[in-house]
């Protein structure tokens, strides 16, 4: 291993390497004419989590600058190295330094360097996208750029992979003076070597350089869609942007995927459970369904008769704030109640099924017309009052936007199963799904400032933020709200096909049910296929095989299946392999741990995952322990983040336990 230190590093590469050329049309601003050296660089640190003092400290840093690997053991060495690099740069020259999960390293860096507020760009508290040091080094987060772990990123790019951490004992106490074995040193430097190699491949695939590369993974799709939407009438787009009142209702009505376990089957080990999922659910509805496509009109003093006419007769897109009195499920056996408790306001006496309303004396909620129709199908109520009601014309999403979705689906389809194209397939798949995520970005998200060693939300007026966003927006916020509403409606159709007596579990675009051989999605798939052919939701692979958006695909049948609630289930597949899905628990290591301690029969309330319980982060911005004296050395303790092993215990709330122990108990309110 040819490893340099700060004295043996060849600094001439900094001064002799030219800067990347700015692409035509990207000349920067008068305030920002920086030039990036044509050097791919990466930085990383390894830390000791010292539980005896509940602090963490760096014991080695590694930096990759093209093919040179540099290591150091102290922060003083790092600062000296940075100063020497900067001394070889002219006033407007910068080094781009990528860090995989910059937010982690930043917590340590801010303890040894005083960042000016203008040098830190954070998108949330402790979520740093970019920071700068010494007016010449720009750190960026490659994790947010790729949305992949370092292991997944390097593997997907087909370069030297990050070494497995299984042989590297993270719990071992190491100090900056601890002698590292060749294997330990190899583990450390491989992280930066592999990151640089992977970034080169990534930049090449996307045809980007340091001036054009986005900050985040969704930035690639944002760039494509923004360019495409220039072909859509700007005045028409601006007319559809919501004012603050409409935006507030849209924000209240926004929901993600529908994930729930049938209370009648919770905790029971079931046999012969089949699973089906919809092909690209969100892209499907973006291509095949209708969306709000005109300015919103306020309905003054809306009556039930008037609202019913607008929704069911005129087929208008609607948003509303409404209140239900004496509401309850029509079918007490229905296992997936639609109304989420956390979305309700002024909720009085009620019963809920793990966060879903079974019945209530009164509740208020904000809805789209799609949600309203589902509630009317599932629930009955004594009365309804509409407090705010807006409607507009339904129509297809703009053709340029749909063409981008179609493009990504075609790329995904033609690369499916092609040997040697796995990387391009995965990237196309990620882009296809990113269109939705981009469409529900909150336009009123406040900025984060880094002031006096703390992340502070800027005091900004939401109305002003929305107005500013509307002037430059190339998408309409309501389109994202309708995307998930349509997807939930399609999932509802799947659950109705399955039937309440068979339905076991659902999650966004998939449904699991007890398979007695009587469930068929043939009719549903025929309808979806017809729509996709009509609207362009078709992709073709290189053999001529056609793929259609929105079809229900068979995922498999499990020999055994048990769930304790949303995002909390376990099953044995047809090959007798145990699988788990538990939010916060590693799937592979968690399945191994469960298998070693009783298997699926042990998947019940009270079971604790020790090995697969993940970790928790403890931020020490102002460490109580300032200096550590150990092994005849003195070690300064600065700002740090301590990573501790955590556990996860399967559990359910007392309220939910009451329901699942006797699912019929709440039926007394129907008598």
Average of the residue pLDDT scores:
93
Principal-axes geometry comes out as globular
How many helix segments?
19
Sheet bearing the most strands, described? 9 strands, mixed
Fraction of residues in H or I helices: 25-40%
What would a concise description of this structure say?
This protein has 19 helices and 34 strands.
3D architecture notes:
Strand 31 (627-630) and strand 32 (633-636) form a beta hairpin. The strands form nine sheets. Strands 1, 2, 3, 4, 5, 6, 7, 8 and 9 form a nine-stranded mixed sheet that branches. Helices cover 32% and strands 28% of the residues. It is an alpha+beta fold and 671 residues long. It has two domains: 3-216, Nucleotidyltransferase, domain 5; 218-568, no CATH class. The longest helix is centred in the N-terminal third of the chain and has 25 residues, at 182-206. The protein has 19 helices and 34 strands. The radius of gyration is 28 Å and the shape is globular.
SSE topology sketch:
Layout: E1 3-4, H1 12-16, E2 35-36, E3 41-50, E4 55-65, E5 68-72, H2 75-86, E6 93-99, H3 102-109, E7 120-124, E8 127-133, E9 137-141, H4 142-146, H5 150-157, H6 182-206, H7 218-228, H8 234-240, H9 244-253, E10 259-261, E11 270-278, H10 281-288, E12 291-292, E13 297-298, H11 304-313, E14 317-329, E15 350-353, E16 356-368, H12 369-378, E17 379-380, E18 383-392, E19 394-395, H13 399-415, H14 422-439, E20 448-451, E21 454-457, H15 462-472, H16 477-498, E22 503-507, E23 510-514, H17 522-535, E24 538-540, E25 546-548, E26 552-565, E27 568-572, E28 578-582, H18 587-595, E29 608-609, E30 615-620, E31 627-630, E32 633-636, E33 640-645, E34 648-649, H19 654-661
Parallel strand pairs: 1-5, 2-6, 3-6, 6-9
Antiparallel strand pairs: 3-4, 4-5, 7-8, 8-9, 10-22, 11-23, 11-26, 12-19, 13-18, 14-16, 14-17, 14-18, 15-16, 20-21, 22-23, 24-25, 26-27, 27-28, 29-34, 30-33, 31-32
Helix pairs in contact: 5-6, 7-14, 10-16, 13-14, 14-16
């Amino acid at each position: 291993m040819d490893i340099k230190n700060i004295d043996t590093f060849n600094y001439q590469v900094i001064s002799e390497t030219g800067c990347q050329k700015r692409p035509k049309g990207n000349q920067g601003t008068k305030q920002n004419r920086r030039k990036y050296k044509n050097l791919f660089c990466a930085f990383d640190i390894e830390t000791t989590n010292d539980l005896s003092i509940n602090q963490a400290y760096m014991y080695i840093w590694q930096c990759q600058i093209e093919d040179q690997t540099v290591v150091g053991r102290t922060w003083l060495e790092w600062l000296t190295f940075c100063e020497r690099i900067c001394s070889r740069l002219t006033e407007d020259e910068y080094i781009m330094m990528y860090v995989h999960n910059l937010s982690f390293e930043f917590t340590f860096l801010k303890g040894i360097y005083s960042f000016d507020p203008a040098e830190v760009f954070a998108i949330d508290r402790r979520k740093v996208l970019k920071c700068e040091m010494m007016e010449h080094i720009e750190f960026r987060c490659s994790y947010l750029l790729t949305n992949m772990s370092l292991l997944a990123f390097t593997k997907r790019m087909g370069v030297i992979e990050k070494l497995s951490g299984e042989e590297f004992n993270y719990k071992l106490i190491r100090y900056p003076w601890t002698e590292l074995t060749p294997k330990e040193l190899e583990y450390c430097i491989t992280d930066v070597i592999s990151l640089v190699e992977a970034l080169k491949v990534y930049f090449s695939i996307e045809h980007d350089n340091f001036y054009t590369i986005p900050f985040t993974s969704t930035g690639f799709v944002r760039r494509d869609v923004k360019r495409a939407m220039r072909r859509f009438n700007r005045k028409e787009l601006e007319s559809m942007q919501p004012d603050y009142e409409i935006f507030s209702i849209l924000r209240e009505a926004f929901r993600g995927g529908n994930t729930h376990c049938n209370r009648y089957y919770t905790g029971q080990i079931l046999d012969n459970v089949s699973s089906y999922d919809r092909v690209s659910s969100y892209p499907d509805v973006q291509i095949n369904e209708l969306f709000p496509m005109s300015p919103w009109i306020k309905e003054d003093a809306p009556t039930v008769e008037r609202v019913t006419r607008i929704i069911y007769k005129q087929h208008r897109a609607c948003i509303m704030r409404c209140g239900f009195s004496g509401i309850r499920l029509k079918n007490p056996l229905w296992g997936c109640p639609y109304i989420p408790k956390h979305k309700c306001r002024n909720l009085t006496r009620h019963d809920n099924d793990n966060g879903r309303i079974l019945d209530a004396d009164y509740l208020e909620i904000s809805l789209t017309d799609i949600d309203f129709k589902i509630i009317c199908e599932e629930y009955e109520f004594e009365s309804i009052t509409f407090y705010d009601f807006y409607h507009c014309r339904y129509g297809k999403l703009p053709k340029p936007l749909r063409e981008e979705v179609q493009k990504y689906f075609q790329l995904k389809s033609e690369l499916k199963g092609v040997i040697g194209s796995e990387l391009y397939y995965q990237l196309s798949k990620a882009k296809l799904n990113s269109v939705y995520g981009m469409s529900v970005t909150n336009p009123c998200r406040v900025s984060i400032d880094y002031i006096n060693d703390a992340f502070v939300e800027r005091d900004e007026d939401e109305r002003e933020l929305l107005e500013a966003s509307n002037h430059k927006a190339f998408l309409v916020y309501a389109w994202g709200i309708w995307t998930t509403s349509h997807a939930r409606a399609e999932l509802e159709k799947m659950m109705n096909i399955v039937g309440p007596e068979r339905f076991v579990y659902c999650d966004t675009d998939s449904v699991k049910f007890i398979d007695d051989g009587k469930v068929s999605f043939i009719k549903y798939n025929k309808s979806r296929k017809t729509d996709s052919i009509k609207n362009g939701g078709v992709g073709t692979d290189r053999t001529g095989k056609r793929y259609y958006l929105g079809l229900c695909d068979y995922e498999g049948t499990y020999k055994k299946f048990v769930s304790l609630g949303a995002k909390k289930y376990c099953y044995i597949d047809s090959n007798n392999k145990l699988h788990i899905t538990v939010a916060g628990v590693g799937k592979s290591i968690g399945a191994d741990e469960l298998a070693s301690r009783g298997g699926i029969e042990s998947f019940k309330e009270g079971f604790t995952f020790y090995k697969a319980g993940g970790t928790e982060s403890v931020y020490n911005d102002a460490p109580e322990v300032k200096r550590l004296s150990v092994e005849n050395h003195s070690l300064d303790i600065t700002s740090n983040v301590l990573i501790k092993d955590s556990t996860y215990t399967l559990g359910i709330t007392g309220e939910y336990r009451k329901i699942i122990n006797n699912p019929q108990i709440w039926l007394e309110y129907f008598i």
